[in-house]
Amino acid sequence: MRIPQKGFPRMTGHPLALLALSFILVSTSSAEAQGVHSLSLDEAIRAAIGHGDDIALAKAGVRAAESGETVARSGMLPQVAASAVYTRTLHSQYSGLASSTSTKDTSSGAGSIMSLFKNLPFGKENQWTIGLTASETIFAGGRISAQQDAAESRTRSAMIDLTAAEAQVALNVTQSYYDAVLADTLVKISSDALKQAGEVSRQMDLAFKVGERAEFDALRAKVARDNQIPQLLQSENDREAAYSRLKQLLNIPLDDSIFLTTQVDDSLSRFAMNSDPSPAARSSVRQASEAVAMTDAQLRIAESMRWPMISVSSTYSPVAYPDNVIPNNNDWLSNWTASLSVSLPLYTGGNISGSVDAARAAAEQASTRLSLTRKSAELDSRLSSLALAAASANLRSAAGTASEASRAYEIAQVRFSQGISTQVELDDARLQEQQARANWARSVRNYQVARAKLALLKDLPLAGGQAAPMPATSSPTMGGVQSPSSGAPTGQ
């Protein structure tokens, strides 16, 4: 930033002037080092959704749920595995047999029999085994399809959670954004009030000096002016706090400056008016419904443990016992087997019945939570609609009051300048005008936030509560072995 030279007096030769100029240059360089961000409300919401920690957590939950769905779906597909094993025999119990065979007459009958062991795998130094196994579950009592249904319910719930997180972030940013703009407006109101009180104090001081006013009037005007200074300082402190909260939501360094381009205005709203959504459309209710579906699937999984599990498998396993480390093609011998496996639980010590009872209780809990969530959603929707109606009524009332207070202050100024009213009347009119403007600004902020909440209500989580918890995805176990699963800008 270049400092314009026009309007600055020449300050050569004066140490204090040079020091002042150096301070200005250093302050300007420091301001240039800080980042400056110009943001509308839409840009702020997009930035928060794109870089928010809550959104990142929700997206990670979606990825985890989709991975679980892939694992559950894999139970319906064939499982194929390959293996390769090389074994080096360092010492074998058949080593002595091979030595004794070499010392005997191979023409004798015993020698001929012992020579047969030379081509058998016993005691061979090198052994290669290659395995290719394929298996497929052909009946599991509905367990695999239930696991897949449960995984799909969890994925849908995670997607709802992501949408709810985005809606909550949008509402939080909207509140903080309008809080910051409101803080700017209140600082402007306090600053205007201080200027007005300062002008009255100046006029009263001049009137006292020329003998037209008493000293009491001049002192009273000065006290009224000085009483505005703490209000201005408090407004500036509140503005700094509001901007800091907004910067934190947007992951902007607290030392950076931001300029807000969306003003608090009752004629401006990013969010379209939306009717009160039905309780069934709320995100929390939809999540509770998915929890019910998932507990039903878990109950089916537990009940499937009573049914036999039937699977088929086939293993192709070539082996080789070469004299050297690397086998030749002629060294390979083939083993190929196929099997049909049937597993039926006969006695589990109450494991299955306990798992079924636990799953049935979880399903009942999920159904009860769904009913409670519906009632809470209905109440929250009603309260949100009432809040918007109240904010709209307050806005209309505050707008009329602000207009009347502004007109009353103008009349009070004229009356005071003509000497037909007292300073007490002027101060009272100024305070009322200041309070009316502040009330109007707060009413607009409340109206915009209430309107935004109602527009986002369908995807927002319930106020003061959390979504229904999703049950665990682990399958019941049997016998200790787990079953298969898977305007003009404002700034700060």
> In whole angstroms, how far apart are the ends?
18 Å
- Give the class from helix and strand content and strand pairing: alpha+beta
Question: Main beta sheet, described?
Answer: 6 strands, antiparallel
The counted number of beta strands is 11
Say which CATH homologous superfamily is assigned.
Outer membrane efflux proteins (OEP)
**Beta-strand content bin:** 5-15%
CATH-defined topology? Outer membrane efflux proteins (OEP)
Entry summary:
By secondary structure, the protein is of the alpha+beta class. It is built from eleven helices and eleven strands.
Describe this structure in words.
With 492 residues, the chain is α+β, with helices and mostly antiparallel strands. It has one domain: Outer membrane efflux proteins (OEP) (Up-down Bundle), CATH 1.20.1600.10. The chain has helices at residues 15-33, 41-51, 53-74, 95-103, 109-115, 143-209, 215-226, 228-249, 283-304, 351-417, 423-456, and strands at 36-39, 79-88, 126-139, 257-260, 309-316, 319-320, 332-333, 336-343, 477-478, 481-482, 490-491. The strands form three sheets. Strands 2, 3, 5, 6, 7 and 8 form a six-stranded antiparallel beta sheet that branches. A hairpin with a 2-residue loop joins strand 9 (477-478) and strand 10 (481-482). Helix 6 (143-209) runs antiparallel to helix 11 (423-456), helix 9 packs antiparallel against helix 10 (351-417) and helix 10 (351-417) runs antiparallel to helix 11. The two termini are 18 Å apart. The relative contact order is 0.14.
